[in-house]
Amino acid sequence: MILSGWARRSGSGVLAAAALGLSGLALVACGDRTAVSGKPVEAVSFSILSAQGQASAGPLWQPLLDDMSKAIGAPVTPHFASTYAALVEDMKRGETQAGWFSAQPAIDAIRDADAELIARTVSPEGLGSYRATLIVKAGSGITLDSVMACGRRYSFGLGDSQSTSGTLAPLTWLFNPRGIDPERCFSTVRSNNHERNAFEVASGVLDVASSNTVSAAALQAQNPTLAEQIQV
Questions:
Q1: What confidence score (pLDDT) does residue 49 get?
Q2: What is the third-level CATH fold of 132-231?
């Protein structure tokens, strides 16, 4: 979780979200609701990347936001954006005071928005990280070897340019070490959120896409029929 410089100075007790490629949230309360000016904090705007689309993400985050509101004694409202870059800029402008960021955007927020990383989380199973994956349509016969053979045979879906599992991990640990440029390897390369990529893989619009184990679990819970049409 990232806490903005304003929130740190205000002592608002804002709860922060995990970063550095971790899933879920660990909540940490600090201080009281009195800002430097002596005025109580009236509300906190919490940054959320709508990687699953705002309509889908909103209900998933609301229970957490409600718990955070109770913990700090002030409303915590969601602030959605479709890219991490937009969320960092919004925090820099003071439009948000806390938020959930992936690894690279967390570094950007610390550097550019006077933010602070205050918490990391673990899953209910005790895992402190998740795995980046590639997904294909179930029964397609596409294998990792055939994907890495390139030949502009397949279409490929990446995530947000700042997404750890959607872009940074596959580029850093899969493609770059092998000297593979996705733009030359695949017939087409497009960037989208994980939910959209999963839908397009299941429907056959995309042959392969980046994803992660957390998104897979969320999809299985929300749309098991769609999840059955996808394999890692």
A1: 83
A2: D-Maltodextrin-Binding Protein; domain 2 (3.40.190)
